[in-house]
Design brief:
Blueprint: H1 12-28, H2 34-50, H3 57-79, H4 85-113, H5 119-146, E1 151-152, H6 161-173, E2 182-183, H7 186-216
Antiparallel strand pairs: 1-2
Organism: Cyanobacterium aponinum 0216
Keywords: Ion channel, Ion transport, Membrane, Transmembrane, Transmembrane helix, Transport
Pfam family, one: Ion_trans_2
Length: 217
């Protein structure tokens, strides 16, 4: 394993898949098959993200296999096909979070190693920012599955609890802070604070990287 990130992968497919995930997901909840389509779009994003890792094909295939297993676990959980649904869902979410973390780190390391500005660098940075929002949405979802009273979700918002948590994640990441959803315990508050800090620090670090590359040119 010479390096953790792939130098050959471009981020076009991942970038557009993330945009589709952001735009299409709100509308899927109004369809009967939301519990099936949401995991399909989400885990296709996960599998595309795995491609950014610089591991051997053997490891990549193993990661994809685990991702598919996590997808099936998610489907089973959503359709309530077995007992211990919460445990299965938490397990699936933990695997999803792990893949997101690996992919974010891989893309970040590749961007930091770049010596010139190009479209791939910019798309990669946008992918990281969007994936941080999704990752924290998963963290909040895990927390709610462990303790249902971790967040005060709004009964007046026409959106599923799962989507409300992703919405809260991105409003926290961008530090908009509308106040319609709030963490109710110390773990939720801690996660929210860390996400808000990342939302401020990441753009600043990325812009400084671009300026540095531009000056070196």
């Amino acid at each position: 394993m010479s390096q953790f990130y792939s130098t050959k992968t471009t981020y076009n497919r991942l970038f557009y898949n993330l945009l589709i995930f952001m735009v299409v997901t709100p509308f899927l909840q109004y369809f009967d098959r939301f519990n099936i389509w949401f995991p399909i779009i989400f885990f296709s994003t996960i599998i595309l993200a795995i491609n950014t890792l610089g591991f051997s094909k053997k490891f990549i295939y193993i990661f994809r296999g685990i991702a598919i297993f996590a997808y099936l676990s998610s489907i089973i959980s959503h359709l309530q096909m077995l007992n211990h649904i919460d445990t299965i869902e938490i397990f699936s979410d933990v695997l999803s979070a792990l893949f997101m973390i690996l992919s974010i780190v891989a893309i970040a390391l590749r961007i930091l190693s770049e010596t010139e500005i190009n479209g791939d660098v910019i798309k990669g940075a946008i992918c990281i920012y969007l994936m941080i929002g999704i990752l924290w949405g998963i963290f909040y979802k895990i927390l709610v599955n462990i303790n249902a009273n971790s967040f005060e979700l709004s009964i007046f918002i026409d959106a599923s609890p799962q989507y409300q948590l992703f919405y809260f994640s991105f409003t926290t990441l961008t530090t908009l802070g509308y106040g319609d959803i709030s963490p109710l315990n110390s773990v939720g508050m801690m996660l929210s604070n860390i996400e808000a800090l990342l939302g401020q620090l990441f753009p600043a670090i990325f812009i400084s990287k671009l300026v540095s590359l531009s000056l070196n040119k």
